[in-house]
Amino acid sequence: MKLLFDENLSRKLVPILADLFPGSSHVFFESLLQNPDTAVWEHAKVHGFTIVTADADFYELSITFGC
User: Domain coordinates of the chain in residue numbers?
Assistant: First the structure.
């Protein structure tokens, strides 16, 4: 599973968790900082990421659009 860490989480998590979740990234490394949540959602969908966030907005997107 590849994780995509949202901007409200530290980008330092990527190398720390690289052994457990290879291919993971952070919105910073994906050039998605300050993009709308829908853009992050679509990027994650297209590139096979699971979004990791502390933001309730993504929960609401999952209710609206599904997994």
Answer: 2-65
**Helix or strand run (H / E) with residue 50:** strand 49-52
Pairing of strands 25-26, 49-52: unpaired
DSSP 8-state code for residue 11: T
pLDDT in tens, the chain (67 residues): 999 999 999 999 999 999 999 999 999 999 999 999 999 999 999 999 999 999 888 888 888 877 7
pTM of the model: 0.91
Give the list of residues 6+ apart from residue 9 with CB closer than 8 angstroms, or none.
26, 52, 53, 54
